[in-house]
Specification:
- The chain is an alpha/beta fold and about 200 residues long.
- The protein folds into 2 domains: about 5-55, RecR Domain 1 (Helicase, Ruva Protein, domain 3, Orthogonal Bundle); about 75-180 and about 185-190, Dna Topoisomerase Vi A Subunit, Chain: A, domain 2, CATH 3.40.1360.10.
- The protein has 8 helices and 6 strands; from the N terminus they run H-H-H-E-E-H-E-H-E-H-E-H-E-H.
- The chain has a 4-stranded parallel sheet with strand order 4-3-5-6. Strands 1-2 form a two-stranded antiparallel sheet.
- Helix 1 (about 5-15) packs across helix 2 (about 20-35).
- The chain is globular.
- It starts with a helix and ends in a 5-residue tail after the last helix.
């Protein structure tokens, strides 16, 4: 079956997005064809603004519109607690909980020797430099619980411990509403180690 070239191009470009397969890309492209010109232009403008107006915060490397992100600019945030995360998407996930009121530092990935990612490829020097001009009382390591995340956490803890009085990690364990019988052994083990007093 022949597909019009502009439609084919749109499908190819949309299918490059994460989580979008060819069928979904085709549905999206066909939806755009049916949508009025004004709404399509709004989407195009939003995507262009995303690329031209968003950059990394000069302090924490979160996403920002100004030199500093909204979190770093907020004087009501606890300036003494710093949460280290892999990516800006982790900041968004933590912020949705409304449980953390400190600052962040986005290191931009994790150590992965097999992929050729070493300490010099991450924003670890920038993290260490923050201790020179900020009074940080606690660093929370909120990295993923996979092998690379664990390795990165251990590496960072070793570097940070001489600079700050308290280094903690986010707890690991069972999700709320999760069934014990369906959890894997590592998750149950972490839940047992991270148990809390009642």
């Amino acid at each position: 079956m022949q597909i019009a070239e502009p439609l084919l191009k749109a499908i190819e470009e949309l299918s490059k997005l994460p989580g979008i397969g060819r069928k979904t890309a085709q549905r999206l492209a066909l939806f755009m064809l049916k949508t009025n010109d004004e709404d399509v232009q709004k989407l195009v403008n939003a995507l262009l603004e995303l690329k031209t107006k968003i950059h990394f915060c000069s302090k924490c490397y979160n996403l920002a519109v100004d030199d500093l992100c909204e979190i770093c600019q907020n004087p009501k945030r606890d300036q003494g607690i710093l949460c280290v995360v892999e990516e800006a998407s982790d900041v968004i996930a933590i912020e949705k909980t409304n449980e953390f009121n400190g600052l962040y530092h986005v290191i931009g990935g994790i150590l992965s020797p097999l992929s050729g990612v070493g300490p010099e490829d991450l924003r670890i020097k920038e993290l260490i430099r923050r201790f020179e001009y900020e009074t940080i009382n606690e660093v929370i390591l909120a990295l993923n619980a996979d092998t690379e995340g664990e390795t990165t956490s251990l590496y960072l803890a070793r570097l940070i411990k001489p600079l700050v009085s308290k280094v903690t990690r986010i707890a690991r364990g069972l999700p709320i509403g999760g069934d014990l019988e369906f959890a894997d052994e590592a998750t149950i083990g972490r839940a047992m180690l991270s148990r809390n007093l009642l």
